[in-house]
Amino acid sequence: MSLRLEVYEEGEEAARRGADVIAGSARSCAAAGRRFAFAMSGGGTPWRMFAILAAMDVPWASVDLFQVDERIAPDGDPDRSLTHIRGALLPAAAAARWHPMDVTASDPEAAAASYARELPDRLDLIHLGLGPDGHTASLVPNDPVLDVRDRGVAVTGVYQGRRRITLTYPAIDRAASVLWFELGEDKREALARFLARDASIPAARVAAPDQLVVCDRAAAGQRTPGSASA
Fold first, then answer.
1. In this structure, what DSSP letter does residue 153 have?
2. Phi, psi (5° rounding) for residue 31?
3. How many CA atoms lie within 13 A of 42 on its CB side?
4. DSSP 3-state assignment of 58?
5. 50 Cβ neighbours under 8 A, 6+ residues apart
6. Under CATH, what is the fold of the domain 2-229?
């Protein structure tokens, strides 16, 4: 597994670099004559990165947009990641094929199984975030979903007041690349544990073959701006 770290002085620089990675991957797929399958996380961090992406030259008509996870909540609810993703990317990404998780279905387990069938065999790029408790996607500490290996999408228990639908480790680990995007001092401890490959936190168990961490100096702590391998 390749794990690379890029530290930027400011969050704006990190957000632009993250957007560059996504746009570059989309262009590479389009140049090769195939669609770009990209899965996005929510949380409080990526919205500036997505806003920058929306202003870039991206072949949106050749892009499939998937979700990494989603809270079970009504359409348009501020708790829903999709609400904020659409706010950041539309109207620029209107030509993309959108694949939202159906979290308003009466049977979440059936909805998760349906979404798993909708996924490609391998996502080209997955954007992941890192919670202060070390979770990523909705793979949260002590949830039984951490042990799911027989399917690519599953339903979690209650976390921060909501059940969620999430990609599981098998779906994430099949991805060609993973982009971790982290900003702020509240990510510092979890990021240090992640880079140390501390398997007690869920994020460190992601085993996709190519992983890039883009962060600002506040998240990286004493690490100096620049690139490194972890």
1. E
2. -65, -30
3. 21
4. coil
5. 19, 40, 85, 88, 89
6. Rossmann fold (3.40.50)
Mean pLDDT confidence for 142-163: 96
* 46, two tokens: 């990526």
Name the packing angle between helices 47-54 and 11-31 (round to 10°): 50
The model's pLDDT over 179-213, given as tens digits with 9 standing for 90+, comes to: 999 999 999 999 999 999 999 999 999 999 999 99
CB 53 within 8 A of CB 63: no
Give the model confidence (pLDDT) of 22-63 as tens digits. Answer: 999 999 999 999 999 999 999 889 999 999 999 999 999 999
* SS percent in the chain: helix, strand, coil, step 5: 35, 25, 40
Nearest C-alpha neighbor of 152 from the set 123, 172, 125, 131: 172
Give Cβ neighbours of residue 43 (< 8 Å, ≥ 6 apart). Answer: 81, 129, 131
Please tell me the distance from the alpha carbon of residue 64 to that of residue 161, in angstroms, as a whole number: 30
Whole-number pLDDT of residue 63: 98
* pLDDT for 230: 62
With beta carbons less than 8 A apart as the criterion, state whether 165 and 72 touch.
yes
Tell me the pTM: 0.95
Q: What are phi and psi of 148, to 5 degrees?
A: -75, 120
Report the distance separating Cα 137 and Cα 153, nearest Å.
11
Tokens coding 200 = 């007690």
